[in-house]
Amino acid sequence: MSDRIREKLQILADAAKYDVSCSSSGSDRKNKDKGLGDASRAGICHSYTEDGRCVSLLKILFSNVCIFDCAYCVSRRSNDVKRAAFTVQEVVDLTINFYRRNYIEGLFLSSGIFKSADYTMERMLQVAKKLRLEENFNGYIHLKTIPGASPELIHEAGLYADRMSINLEMPTEVGLKAFAPEKSHQEVQKDLGLVRDRLIQLKDERQIIKHVPKYVPAGQTTQMVVGAHQETDQDVLFMADRHYKEFKLKRVYFSGYIPINTENNYLPAVGSAPPLLRENRLYQSDWLMRFYGFQVNEIVNERFPHLDLDVDPKLSWALRHPEQFPVDLNRADYHMILRVPGIGVKSAKKIVQARRFGKIHVDLLKQLGVAYSRAQYFIRCEDSPRFQKELSSSFIRQQILTQGSSKYIKPLSPQLSLGF
Amino acid sequence: MSNEQLSYYFDGSMAGLLSCVFRAFQFKEFQVQLGLLDGAQHGLFSEVIEVPSHEQYAQRVWSALQKKLSPAALKQIYFASLSESLEAYQHLFNYCIYVFQQPHSIEKDYLHPSVLAISQWTKKVGREKHRMEAFVRFKKTTDGLFLSLVRPDFNVLPLIQPHFKRRYQDQRWLIYDEQRNYGLYYDLQQIHEVCMDAYEMDCNLQKGGSQSFQLELDEQEVLYDQLWKDYFQSINIKERQNIKLHVQYLPKRYWRYLNEKLI
After folding, report:
1. Domain limits of chain B?
2. B166 to chain A: which residues are within 8 Å by CB?
3. Distance of residue A208 Cα from the nearest chain B Cα, in angstroms
4. 3-state class of A257 per DSSP?
5. Which of A396, B27, B121, B162 shows its CA 20 to 30 Å from the CA of B185?
6. Residue B140 CB neighbour total at 10 angstroms
7. What is the ipTM, given to two decimal places?
């Protein structure tokens, strides 16, 4: 008995690991009637695997049997892997028992599509319902929306899930058609729209009716695989930006493609390194859009369709816009301070607060944890020399590249760097 | 004034610290070096004053702080004090002096070394609080108690208490700080502070482990412990191996109570 459940867990966790969404944040669900669990607004990472990724939820597939044949997916129909499926009770028991031991924040349930989209979605819904209604479980539940499931099922799932997600998979429609002919962006967008509209509707009702049910309180997310097709970073980021705006997504995840298919000659070969550096630069750009007030076309555009792998996108923007610098930290607007390479949200806030009490000197920046080695080229403090030689962008770039040691070891970079 | 450095020695408690602040204003002594009463080194050229912990004085200082500071700043003081670090105590002392000497709010005056230091200590203690909420691992005993031994860098048990109380309301649990030798026990009704012998609870404590409880475990404990370890291995993507990052997020000193990291 225990051997069988161990094997199932190994198969179905292994198959779920390529979905990079891990967060357990954003929900305000409270423990009720002395039940089990509550949601922590900021989310909690309970462990980290050796690849440095956070473990927050029990992330598993309900089943890895799938009627689809998406070339990039390990569970595709034509792939010769061990297949397994949980029972509803097994998933419930695992979730509850892991949660009680403080291993996890909750459950992230996805699935291969077996029989039909509705049949699959219904099984997943049963798990969520059982956890909420029979076990009085108030921890986090992230449900994957199964593409093509009926609106009724999707709406009902939203009553029990904290977060729902459905993956765009490929950043371009061409890419998706090439590798997953059974899927389309349109269908994904239809499902994202269903939940978004329901959220808006309930928000309106809340103003009139006091008791409106909780509905996907942590919102929706999606994921795109990068590096499998020939998409540009512009394709990826414009796609992300559009979905943030149009579907009010909480997060867009990027997953560097890990080659797992030996038969498809159009996909990167098995054994070739996943584009980790590019993935990192995409996330940095995503942060700039969400927390630093950058517009997507400031980061990538027709002239610069690809992110610079050698320097981060914020530095890259600053180097392209010497006319915006130097920024006088004693006078500049908060939003402009936020744009200085090496200064983060917290330090920018502290600078603005502290300068009401006196002048900002270089020493303070170092104490605040500003990356001064990068910031120094773009700022003026009280003790900066009055007249400074203007440095060219290419010189600054060179200076930073030679003195700095990237967190990402160079061999990880799949592209040769051209030191402009 | 002579060059002699004035020192206050106190018992390391919050009440003791606030008593020091009280004395500072009583005698107009604002340039003071703090020390701890237990066996700390007395400076050669310093005048040493032992400041006893005085509940009423402490209460008066605290009430005065409550009038001058926002709830967020009071929380910072509380967090920083749980660091149990003399350096933090010194900053707290200087911070309090500064608060009372200035007519306006100085909470955000990061140009002042102690204001900045308190915000940094708060961050450190807050991080440890968050880690404990993440890294506590319960084992279930035969009589249904969920037990965990921990060894946090700072005294964060009082900070994590509300989190665990909200979350685990239908199971009895005990989180025990093996170093500070006290624990929080929830009996399905309320939380009690308990003192036990940690070395008796876990025979491997001395060797640096804290997962070999002497208590008899629930029959399913072995299974779920194993399933969690299996899960932890299964979700790792070998192509993305990054041990440096792994250890940065999961510092080795915490491995002793993470069952998935137990070899």
Report:
1. 5-127, 136-261
2. 30-31, 38
3. 30
4. coil
5. B121
6. 23
7. 0.93
